Each structure stands twice: as structure tokens, then as C-alpha cells.
Amino acid sequence: MTRLVNAELVKLRTTRTAVGVFALTVAVTALIMTAVMLIAGRPGQPAIDSGILPDLVVVAKGPLVIFALILGVLGMSGEFRHGTATPTFLVTPHRGRVVAAKVVAHALAGVTLAAASAVVALGIGLPWLRSKGVEVAIFDADVGSRLLGLAATSALHAVLGIGLAALIRNQVVAVAAGLLWMRIEDLLPAVLHRPGLGRWLPEGAAAALTGASPATLSMWAGGLLFAAYGVALALIGTRFVVRRDLT
Amino acid sequence: MSAINVHGLSKRFGDVLAVDGLGFDVEEGTVVGFLGPNGAGKTTTLRMLLGLVAPTAGTATFGGRAYRELTAPTRMVGAVLEASGFHPGRSARNHLRVLATAAGLPGSRVDEVLGQVGLADAAGRRVGGFSLGMRQRLGLAAALLGDPGVLLLDEPANGLDPEGIHWLRGLIRRQADEGRTVLVSSHLLAEVAQTVDQVVIIARGRLVAHSTLADLTASAAAAVRVRTPQAEALRDRLAAGGAAVQLDGPDKLVVTGVTTEQVGRAAAAAGIVLHEMRFERSNLEEVFLELTNHGGNRS
Any CB–CB contact under 8 A between A6 and chain B? Predict the structure, then answer.
């Protein structure tokens, strides 16, 4: 299994896709941080004080999880799109193992993206807060839990991407389905008149990772539930789609 | 001992029966041409052997073991399928590195096989810029990575220039000389005739012939071609004598089962004028066409 995870990591490192997504994450985080610095302290915006630091860690969470999801989708669907599924499955005829290796490798890639985003956010945010005369404690439990949550949500969104693409072989359709679902999920509880439903849906569960509140599940429960969604998609996709004839 | 066993193998795609009760064995250490027109079911058969396509019925194994059950498949079987299985943005060396890593093969094999297929100089280039011939070579490099005892090559000559085809023949021959088993598919008999010991010929998913190349050549039917203004009269006369005669245009006949002498005597006896007569042994390609067009069950 280590061999297969390593092979997936080599795949990630040897095309421009992952490098591009990484660069995009860094750039978008820097952009958002710039915007935050410009508007913070204005009426209706967060105050510039030590309480802002945990929020800065997850400042680019929205785009980050989308990038992680797309990276996961591309990692799986690319095999079918470029026909590399054939050599991949010749080396490893047990296709479920390939999907499992992809899940692990892309979760690691998701953590890397989250780390890059957090480093950029803090790298810009800490000097800025100091220049405003705000004392900040970086070794703060709140900051730590946000960092952990960001890494987890990014990793699990990459896993969800693998699952989606295992189920929907077409790259564009898989990405579109993922993004569309995020929108639908926002509306679903209201449409169904079930305001409590949201926390049980994938993105609602994931939200607990980076900001647990009374409206969400606990951080652990949300994380586990969200992971279960991703793994379930990957299992169903493997059973019914990935095992299909490769002609 | 046979290296490849195909028994009662069938595959149905919707309404299409792509492979229909196919059966043949390939002995260890032989080079076998797997022939048939496009759409005959060659690729589907190879993909079933490799576990990429699930058979509707029957089995396709390597000495009794399905590809999926091989402990180290890349070390036992190497396959070249189509030329499209590459990420265009990945270099040739990295493509092979991915496969070697997954198969647990030493990284040194990557440069060895790149040299073996003549791609050492292009190793660092992205595959997207490769010609079809270079992709075929890279596919071969991937197949050779695990130094396997059995090679399955699906139309490996596609996209190769004459020099490349010459090189490919040499490579296949060397693999065979080292005792490897090679099953090489083609829709052109001539392409593999110089390389193979035996041929397995299929048409419409069925076996039509499995023989040595020598036997196939011997079975090439001879014919006498005649040009005469009295074609129909000669045809009736020869047919009455038991020959198989076909009109091939208003003044031409193709006669099989007789010698030129017999045709000449028959014409003289009937006072028929001959403008031209020649003896013709049909070549391998014609035998192949004959077999695949009117494929019954000969083996």
C-alpha cells in the first residue's frame, strides 16, 4: 500500500496540476488577506484585536476547500481522461487499492494546501497586527484547533473529490456536481423546512471542523461524518464505476 | 507448458458479440501473431486477458492464473495496448517512474528500458509533444519495465515508420530468443509474417485458424487465370470436368483445382482460343483475407 501511495504522490508531483493548485491557493489567500487588512476595523467588520487571529487562519477556507475538491476530482478522473487508468490498473489489478491509495495521497495533498494557506495568512497577518500594535499569541488553543480543522477540511474535501470522480468519471461533470451540491446544500434545509438538517449534510458537517457552534455538530462528529461521506462515495464509485470494463 | 490459455471466451457489449467462444493456447517461448481485421475482437480479447474487461463467459489466463491473481503482474506479463495511456504533461521518465514505484521495481529499470526502446534522449520531455511512434516506444518501455516472461502487444507497429517497424521486429525477435512468449496482434499478416512462429487468426470474434506460419503458407490455394473470348464456353467445359471455375469479368476465368496443362487440353479439345493463361499461387495476405472473410471453424 505504501508503494501505491508513493506512486500517487509521484503522479501529483510530476504534472503541473497540483503545482498550479498550490500556487493558486497561495495567491488567493494573499489576495483575501489583503482585502481583510483593508476593511478590518470598519463598522460591521471584525475589529483589529487579538481575537481576530483564529479567523485569519481560516480566512481562505472557502476557496481552499474548492481547490482541494478539484484536486481530488482531477486526481481520479484524469486517469480515465488521459487513459492512464490502463497502465495504472495493469500494475495494480485490484482497483480498490488504487482508489484507496489516491484517497491517502490526496488527503496529504489537501493538508499541504491547508498548510500553505495558513502560512501565507499568518505570514501576512502577524506583521500586520503587530504594526497595528496588537499583541497576539500564536500558540493559542483556538489558533491550534483552527489550524487542525483547516487541514482536516482541506484533506477531506480532496477525499470527497476522489469519491465524486470515482462515481462520475467525467472530469467536468464531477467538478460541476461538487460545486452545484455546495449551493444546493445551502438551500436545502430552508426548502424542506428542516432548519436542523444542515448540520448532517456534507458541507454542514465539514463546517464544524473550522468553527463548531451550537448550530453544527462537534468538531469530531462533524469531521467523522464528512469523512464518511467522502469514503462512502469512493466505495460506491469503486464498486459500480471504477470496476467497469476499461475498453 | 502453455503460457496463455483462452477457453470459451466471449464478450458481449450490448447487442454486439465482440468475442464469441474463442479458444487457443500459446506455448511458452513462442511468438504468435494474433491476427484479424479491425473489429474482429483482438483488443477485447487482450483486455480480457489483462483483467481490464470482464468476460461474459469463458476464461483467459496465464498458465491457468487470471491476471488479477498474479502476485507480481508486471514481472510476469508486459502489455502494450493503445498509444493514448499517458498524461500529456508528464515526462517519459516520470511516466515510467510512477509505474515502477507502484510495482515496487528499482528506479534504475526506468533508464534501462528507456535506453532499450531508444528514448534515452527524450526521457525528460513531456509526452504531449511525442509523435505516435515515440508513444509506441514509451508503451513498449512500460511493458518491459518488469522484465516479464510474457509480452502482449496490441498493434505495436501502429504509428511506426519503416525504420521503427524494422527496429520493432528486431526487438520482438530478441525477446523471443531470450525465451519469452510474445503474442502480437495486427490486422496485417505481412507486418508480422517475418517475426512470428505461429498465427492465431480470428474474425467476428471467432477463431478461424491456429497454425504455424509454414502450414498456412502451404494451404495457400493455387489458381489458373485464363483470358479468352469464349469464357463461358470454357467455364462450362472445365466445370463439367470437376474444376471450380469463376467468371472474373466478361473474358476472364479463375480456375482452381486444375493445372495449366489440364486447362490447355480442355480448351484445345473444344476449339477455344486462349489469349492468356498463367498459374498463380495466392500469397499469405490473400489466404488471410479468404479466411477472415469466409471464416468458418478451421483449426
Answer: yes
pLDDT for B214-258, tens place per residue? 787 766 667 888 999 998 889 888 888 888 888 888 889 888 878
Is A91 in the B-facing interface, judged by CB distances under 8 Å?
yes
User: What average pLDDT does range B57-75 have in this prediction?
Assistant: 94
* Cα pseudo-dihedral A223, A229, A233, A236, rounded to 10: 120
B244-247/B252-256 β-pairing: antiparallel
Side by side, the strands of the sheet bearing B222-227 are B244-247, B252-256, B222-227, B276-281
The Cα B3–Cα A58 span in angstroms is 59
Which of B74, B85, B101 has the CB atom closest to A84's CB atom? B85
Per-residue pLDDT of A112-129, as tens digits, reads: 999 999 999 999 999 999
Please give the C-alpha separations between residue A123 and each of A119, A138, B285, in angstroms, as whole numbers: 6, 11, 73
Residue B295 identity (one-letter amino acid): G
Is A157 within 8 Å of chain B by CB?
Answer: no
Cα distance from N-terminal residue to C-terminal residue, chain A: 26
What predicted TM-score, i.e. pTM, was given to this entire model?
A: 0.85
| pLDDT tens-digit readout, A73-87 | 999 999 999 999 999
Subunit contact A245:B88, Cβ cutoff 8 A = no
CA–CA distance, A239 with A3 (Å, rounded to integer) = 23
In this predicted structure, what is the pLDDT of residue B299?
Answer: 36
Q: Does A246 touch chain B (CB under 8 A)?
A: yes
In A, minimum Cα distance to B56 occurs at: A245
Contacts of A6 in chain B (CB under 8 A): 101-102
HEC readout, chain A: CHHHHHHHHHHHHCCHHHHHHHHHHHHHHHHHHHHHHHHCCCCCCCCCCHHHHHHHHCCCHHHHHHHHHHHHHHHHHHHHHCCCHHHHHHHCCCHHHHHHHHHHHHHHHHHHHHHHHHHHHHHHHHHHHHHCCCCCCCCCHHHHHHHHHHHHHHHHHHHHHHHHHHHCCCHHHHHHHHHHHHHHHHHHHHHCCCHHHHHHCHHHHHHHHHHCCCCCCCHHHHHHHHHHHHHHHHHHHHHHHHCCCCC
Residues in chain B: 299
